[in-house]
Amino acid sequence: MTATVLPRSGARTRRHRVWRQPVVVTALVVLAAWLAVAVLAGWLSPYDPLAQSADIYAPPSAAHPFGTDELGRDVLSRVLHGARLSIPLALAIVAGALLVGGLLGLVAGYLGRVADEIIMRVTDLVFAFPQIILAMAVTAAFGPSATNAVLALVIVSWPVYARVIRGAVLSIRGENYLSAARMLGVGPVTVLRRDVIPNSVGPAIVLATLELGNAVLLLAGLSFLGLGPRPPAPEWGAMVALGSNDISMWWVSVFPGLAILTVVLACNILGDAIRDRFDPNLVGGR
Amino acid sequence: MTTVETSAPPARRPRVPPIVRYLARRLAIAVGLLFGSTLIGFLLVQAVPGDPVAANLSDEALGDPAAVAAFEQRWGLDEPLPVQYLTYLRNLVQGDLGTSQHTGRPVVEDLLDHIPATLEIALPAILLSVLLGIGIGMFAALRHGRAADQAVRIGSLLGLSTPPFWLSLLALYLFFFVLGLSPGGGRLSPEFSPPPSVTGLYPVDALLAGDPMLAWDAVQHAALPVLVLTLVTTATLVRFVRSALLEVLRKDYITAAHAKGLPPRTVLFRHLLRAGLVQIMTMAGLTFASMLAGTVLIESVFAWPGLGNYAYTSASALDRPAILGVTLFVAATYILINLVVDLLYGLADPRIRLS
Questions:
Q1: Does residue A129 belong to the interface with chain B, where contact is any CB pair within 8 Å?
Q2: Is the separation of the CB atoms in B166 and A260 below 8 Å?
Q3: Domain ranges of chain B
């Protein structure tokens, strides 16, 4: 091993050129393309994603570029429509978790004492469960549906936001501008809204970007287990599960799986880049 | 989670060694979490919309008034909620997690049956992942910012972004259907019967029984699930090892070690790896725990009769007692492994041991 172990001085400056890295640009383009697909799915799809036909398990061809599944449905049309399902649902999961976790983190960090203790203990508790397992138990308890899957994934993913927001609030709690506002007689709600929230929301937004890919992956996992949107909804995870009925028909699961992979990978590359750019301390994540 | 107690105890208090205080604190936290997880389990049972009897008994048992009455009696359903929780706790302490709706057997027995199969793939996978994770992570950290480092970063992101259930299907398609290298799903080929159970791990038991053919068949069956599990886990560990080592690389004592002319190899093994190793072991412990959850999305594809497959079949049958049983079991394992890792950490880190 001849490599020098000294840190290289070039690393720092290189980090700031992150937006010009081809990988990051590609990830942005891929995500933008998927967003476009989600909006234009109805117009782009050659077939109705739910329409069955006698042409079952047709391999990829000019008529069906991604082939057809066991009910003769066009896999391409279903993958395109899947974007319309997975992307908004993942956004809803992240938004819900950000809202719940953010509020609780805000309360814990700002009020401190008992509120902080209780909220942080509950956070630890939820962390004690592996996400997919707890989400599975919640959806199974409430019954499988798209709404309950989102609900379950919000329940398992808010704690990380609560921790980050609480940390951000704690770091500004002693700042003079907060004391000044309080001494001027500004009410606690106004202080929170005008001073605390704007100054602590940054890290949470970074985290939300990082977590978007995770949300897509977890949702697909739940659907794969049959606990997501009900069939025949074209959910990517559920479509991959269909492919396991007969593995020789590889196209049934390969294409929806590639859809999940590309969206999640793009989110993760972007999240990584954003984290490097804005928050070198978040390295490693959870 | 790991708070290092730095302040010296006041002189008048009886002197408790810091290590004892640290261990006691970790133990208390673990017990609290275990207790709390039962509360979550109980709340989930309560949250079931509609009748808990209908949600927990099979259709067959529902038609039988005696079975319904027995169920109500067992879980104290006519009592107020706090009493119900105590009944639930008492049953839990006695190892009663309820009866599975689709197997009709006690959930605890089902769980015990499925654990060895999961260990059979999880143990080799964690071993391989730790070795690969340290190797690749170190390789990347020492080439920080260069092309090789970038490649490792993208590669590990790729591993993290791949749905494990999809990867399993691809592996099965390629190695079983196209190449014919894998014997397919299950733990053994149909012509073999399981070896007499000693450890519950088929390859080990087969060797103990002096049957190398059987052991080889078991190994071949385990290969693909181990491969997928290893790939997914290695991705997480590589990222962790890389950032942990980069952290250590920035330390002054590494620069000092180089400055005083120590050979790079000595710095690497004596200083760098040693400092990073405690953290890496912590992470490996936690990864092993989360692997139990990860198998949920893998085992079903390989018809591998482990915990993950049990969770999967329970979930698709909406078998609530079984799902809750698995959930509690995995959470408890997670908490206990966490505790062990914390304790080892306390013993290994001189700042906690001696402070």
A1: yes
A2: yes
A3: 2-93, 107-354
Structural domains in chain A, sorted by start: 67-278 (1.10.3720.10)
Identify all chain A residues contacting B244, using CB atoms and an 8 Å cutoff: 284
Q: What is the pLDDT of residue B351?
A: 66
Note the pLDDT of residue A238. 92
Listed as ranges, residues in chain A with pLDDT below 70 are 1-20, 278-286
Q: What is the CATH architecture of B107-354?
A: Orthogonal Bundle (1.10)
**What's the distance, CA B150 to chain centroid?**
29
* pLDDT recorded at residue B50: 59
Weakly modelled stretches of chain B, pLDDT under 50: 1-5
Look at A141 and B326 and tell me if their CB atoms are within 8 Å: no
* Chain B contact set for A122 (CB, 8 A): 36
Instruction: Specify the amino acid at residue B215.
Output: A
**Could you please report the per-residue DSSP string of B24-66?**
HHHHHHHHHHHHHHHHHHHHHHHHSSS-HHHHHS-HHHHT-HH
Nearest-CB residue to B158 (from A11, A141, A265): A265
Question: Which of B142, B169, B292, B298 to mutate against chain A (most A CBs within 10 Å)?
Answer: B169
Which of B163, B258, B323 is the closest to A6 by Cβ?
B258
| Cα–Cα distance measured from residue B216 to residue B165, given in angstroms and rounded to the nearest whole number | 25
Q: What is the pLDDT of residue A10?
A: 44
Q: What is the pLDDT of residue A13?
A: 47
Q: What is the reported pLDDT for B51? A: 65
ipTM rounded to 2 decimals: 0.85
What is d(CA B350, CA A130) in angstroms, rounded to the nearest whole number? Answer: 31
pLDDT of residue B12: 59
Q: Would you call the peptide bond into A232 cis, given omega within 30 degrees of 0 as the criterion?
A: yes
Distances (CA, A) of B56 to A145, B29, B42, B48: 20, 32, 13, 10
Per-residue model confidence as pLDDT tens digits over A111-162: 888 888 889 888 988 888 888 888 988 888 888 899 999 999 999 999 999 9
Question: Among positive and negative, which fits the CA dihedral B305, B287, B345, A286?
Answer: negative
What is the per-residue pLDDT across A67-85, written as a single tens digit (0 to 9) for each? 888 888 988 889 999 999 9
Output the CA torsion sign for B251, B252, B253, B256. Answer: positive
- DSSP assignments along A203-230, one per residue: HHHHHHHHHHHHHHHHHHHHHHTT-SSP
Q: In what helix (H) or strand (E) does residue B123 lie, and over which residues does it extend?
A: helix B107-142
